[in-house]
Queue: 2 jobs
Job 1
Amino acid sequence: MKSADVIIVGGGPAGSSCAWSLKRQGVDCLVLDKEAFPRAKLCAGWITPEVVEDLELDIAAYPHRFLSFKKLHFHFPVIGLSPPTVQHSIRRYEFDAWLLERSAAPVDTHKVQTIRQTGDEYIIDEQYRCRYLIGAGGTRCPVYRSLFRQLSPRAGKKQVVALEEEFPYDYRDSKCHLWFFDKELPGYSWYVPKADGYINIGIGAMAEKLKTRGGDIRSHWNHLTSKLERKRLVRGHDFKPKGYSYYVRGKAEIFRTGNAFIAGDAAGLSTKDMAEGIGPAVKSGLIAADAIVNGIIYDLSGISSKSFDAKRLMLSWLFRRQYSSG
C-alpha cells in the first residue's frame, strides 16, 4: 500500500495549488486523478488578476497560450457596457497540466472508488493510505461523495448547467464578449478568444430557473450560435458542444470533517455573479495547505463570492466615459 502524509484527489487548479503549497513547505503529498494530464477540460478558461497573484504566476515566463483583455464587453437586452478591467484567458488543457507539473508533487493516474477511515488514517481503494485527505475532484469528487454528501448536501437551486466548445479558429474579433439574460436566459453566454487562434464558446444557466421557465439549454445554444454567425464572430463552424454542471456559492457549508477537506468545485465555490470557479479553487487549495501545515481553521468565508465589484466597475466606466467626452 502506498502512503503519503497528504493525498489530494483531483489534479485541477484546487488540487495542484494545494500540492504546490504543500511541497514548498516540505510536506509529503501525492495527487490522484482519474485522467492523465494534459487532459481536455470544459471551461471558458477565464482567469482574474487575483489568480495570477495567488499563483505567483510570471506571465512573461508562462510557456503556453495567455491572452489579456483590458476590457470585457457586457451585452444586456437594452444596454451594452465595456468597463475597464484587466482579465486573462488560458486553455485549461495547457494551464492545468502546467500547474500540476509545477507543483512537483508525484501524481498517480487512478480513479478513486472507495474511501474508508480507520483510526486517524484514510484508506483509498485499499491501495493508498494518508493522514490528511483533500477532495479536489470537481462536482463529482469521490471525497465529497463518500464523506461530505450527507454533511453538506447541495442545493438544486445553486446548480449551473452549461454547454460549451473550444476549438481552433482564425478569429477576427479578439475582444471578450458576454451576453446576459438573452432571450430570458437565467445566465449568460460567452465568446472568449485564446491566444494563437483558439476560441471558447459557451452558455451557462441556473438549472432550476431554466426548467421552471420551460426552457432548455440546447435551444439557447442554438440562439447563441445563430447570433455568432450573424455578427460574423464565428462563421461556418460545425458546432459540437458538450455539457456539464456544477454549483455556485451557497450558504456556509461544511468543508472539513476530521482531517478530510473539500476544495474548489467539490465544495461548490464558484462565484454567484459569473459562476467563475478557477479563482475560488486556487484560493481554497492554498487555504487547505495552510490549514494542514499551520493548524489554522479551514475557513473559506474570506473567498469572495463574486468575480467583480459591480459598483466599482460601473463607476470606473462612467468616469472614463465622462472624461473622454469632456
Job 2
Amino acid sequence: MAKLINEFRRAWWGVSQPALPLAIGFAIACLGLSTFARWLLAQVRPDVFFTPYFPAVVLATMFAGYRIGILTAIAAGAFGVTVNFGETTADSARIVLLVIYWGVCGVAIWGVEHYRAIAADQRDISRRLIEEEEYRKLLVDELQHRLKNKTSTIHAVIHQVLAEQPQVWDAIDRRIRALAATDDLIARVDGTGCDIRDLLRSELEPYGHVRFNLNGDALFLPSRLAISLALMFHELATNASKYGAFASARGFLQVSWTVSNERLSITWDETEGPPVENIGKPGFGTKLLNSALRSFDGKTEISFFRSGVHCIMQCRIPAS
C-alpha cells in the first residue's frame, strides 16, 4: 500500500509516469465520480449529459498524460450518450453536443499536456541546478580547505624566517591572521549572513581594539550583501594599514552606519593618518569598492583627505 501511495504521489506531482493499471484505475475512478455527480445533477436538470465528465478528463490527463486523457474523453462521451437518468433519450441534439464536448476536451487535453511538458522541463532544469549547486559547494569547501592549508604554511614559514625579529613578526602576524579571519568569515556567512558589527570586528580587531570605533544599531546582513561588504571592508582595512589610519601611531578609524527605508548607509572615516600626497590611477581595490554594491542598487563615494580616507557606502538591503 505504501508503495502504491508513493507511486500515486510521484505521478500526481509529475515526477514519474504512473503504471498503466494505476493510470486506468484513476481514470475509471474519475469517471465513476463524474457519473455520480451527473446523477445528482439529473435530479434537477436531467438534460445535462457531458459537462460533469469534463473534470474527469482534465484530471486523468494531468495524472497520466494525453493518451489516458483521450481514452477518458471517449469513454465519458459514450457514457453521456448511452447512460440516461430520467425519461430522456438519445437524439440528434445529443450527438451534436457530443461532438462539441469532444472538441472542447481535445483543446483541454492539448493545454494540459503542453503545461505538463513545461513543468517537466522546469523540473529537469531545477534538478540540474541543484546538482550544480551541490558540486559548487563541494569545490568551494575544497578550495577553502586548501586556502587554509596554504595560509598556515605561509604563516609557519614566515615565523621561522623572522624568529629572531619579534617586532617585525608581530606586525606581519596580525596581518596574516586578519586575512585568515576574513576568509573564515566569508565562508561562514555564505548562505547564512551575519551581523555587520561582527563583520567589522573580524576585519579590524587584528589592528588593535583602541584603533577603531563602531557606531550603529544591530543589523543582520543577508549572505550576498555580507560577502560584498566583507570584501570591501578588507580592502579598506588593508589600505588603512598601508597608507591610512592604521599606518600611523595616532591614526584612528570611525565606522558608523544607519538604515532608512530599507537602505543602508555606511561611513568609513579615517583620521590622524599620514598625509595623502599623491593619488595614483585606480587599481583593483578602487574598482572593487566602486562596483561591489551595484547589484544592490548602491554606490560608493571615496574622498581622500589629508588625514585619511573618507568613504560612504550606500545600498539597498535585500530580503533575507
